[in-house]
Amino acid sequence: MKNNNILKKLGAYLFENKVMIAFAIVCIGAIIVSKSPMSFIVDGVITRIGRNTFTVLALIIPVVAGLGLNFGIVIGAIAAQIAVFWSVYWGFQGIQGMLICFLMATPLAVLFGYLVGKLFNKMKGAEMIAGLILGFFADGLYQLLFLVIIGGVIPVDNPTIIISGGVGVKNTIDLTNNLKYAIDSVRMVDMITIFFYAMLVITAVKAILHFLKKYTFRRSDAINFGIIAVIFGLSYIPAVERWLFADRLVLLQVLTIALIIISVLQVYKIGKEKFINKNTHFSLTKPILTIFLCGVIYGLTYFPKVEEVLLIVKIPILPFILIALLCLFNQKILDTRLGQNMRTVGQSQSVAMASGINVDHTRVLAMIISTVLASWGQLIYLQNIGTFSTYGAHTQIAQFAIAALLVGGASVQKATNRQALIGVLLFHTLFIVAPQAGKNLFDNAQLGEYFRVFVSYGVIALSLAMHAWQLVKKETALTTPQELNGLENGGSGTA
């Protein structure tokens, strides 16, 4: 009986993650066939993860809120590209230029997200189609702006970015001398310095509010600032300072630090649950197994070929920190009242309305968040690429981001940080090895490219087809007209 339950669970897991498993098998096969050096593959994957993951993570909130796969994130990308153009035109460079881009793109993305959310509220149940068509409409307005209005209506005099006739923007803008690697090249010491002064200001404000009896200054506030102050003080030690002046870390260093942090957190968890909370139901199996696996993974780094790869590949620090912060944001916001409202709306709009939740307002907020995050993701993407394809940089962003999310095991009704990260890893691994695999198999690298594109759009088509099939099953299972009406008003599905 026990074996039957295990087999059932295994079968359910395999069925639920069939797309991810199939894609993983294809990736492994393509890696073997391509015969590409592992250092080349890992370096390319790391680069693409830092470049694209932020945008993929921007898709999660709308899925949870029942809006389905947000094809409208292209509009967020457009907001980012408008900001990049003006930043380049005004001559801003480096991290200063990127901050200007973020400041300009954010209010534009908020406005665009609000308008998209309003439109989606008028088209409940057809949000994904609306988002796809809206992307084409927005692209038309975007081209009108960059081909006619800039230079024709708005006077712009810069021969490096404007067409020779004086009207319209060039097809490609080089970001080498202004925004290229602006985020990727931020040093650790600068991040620590900025974070310290930010915490100093926040702590000072909390202390003032405590003095004015409008806030209770807690011991944790002082402890947190003390920890940051100690870290900041350590940065003045010459050996530490030299290490912190790097903007990239060798993959081996990152892996080692990550394994240490995970192991320490597991030890802390054991101590807290067993000795502080005295939780008799707490199981030691999972944390001990986690620590053991960390040890095994670290042991693998001593294999020469593995060590070689880990010492060659370098990781830009700030993009990965931003990705980690966005994962934390997605997790934490769903624990808030707004996040719970989004979940309820995603599960059933009729139930949400009965619970007193403003469904339309919640959906609009979800779209605003997604659009803003998508604009930030496009900024991270463009500064890493180093060139701005004026009329093409945004066109495929929705399809590729959605395909990556679906490859990770997500669906129209459910998406998580883990699925997004796995999807980016698998999807972009295939992107890297497919051309060489096609060349080795068929003596034609273009066939690998065709297969890659086929798979990209294929997983989207499969997901939409399964979603439609599930909706039909639900409608068939409904027994009352009231329930059927609830489903029709329920939007894209359940979260």
**What's the SSE pattern?**
HHHHHHHEHHHEHHHEHHHHEHHHH
Count structural domains: 2
Reported CATH architecture of the largest domain: Orthogonal Bundle
N- to C-terminal separation? 32 Å
Averaged pLDDT, please?
87
Please identify the oligomeric state.
Answer: single chain
Low-confidence stretches: 487-495
**Biggest β-sheet strands, sense, barrel:** 2 strands, antiparallel
CATH topology of the largest domain: ABC transporter involved in vitamin B12 uptake, BtuC
Task: Name the beta content range.
Answer: under 5%
Number of strands: 4
Neighbour order of strands in the largest sheet: 1-4
The first-level CATH class of the largest domain is given as Mainly Alpha
DSSP helical segment count: 21
What report would you give on this structure?
The structure is a single chain. The protein has 495 residues and is an all-alpha fold. The chain has 2 domains: 358 residues, ABC transporter involved in vitamin B12 uptake, BtuC (Orthogonal Bundle), CATH 1.10.3470; 60 residues. It is built from 21 helices and 4 strands. It has a two-stranded antiparallel sheet. Strands 2-3 form a two-stranded antiparallel ribbon. Helix 3 runs antiparallel to helix 17. The longest helix has 33 residues. The chain is globular and about 70 Å long. The C terminus is likely disordered.
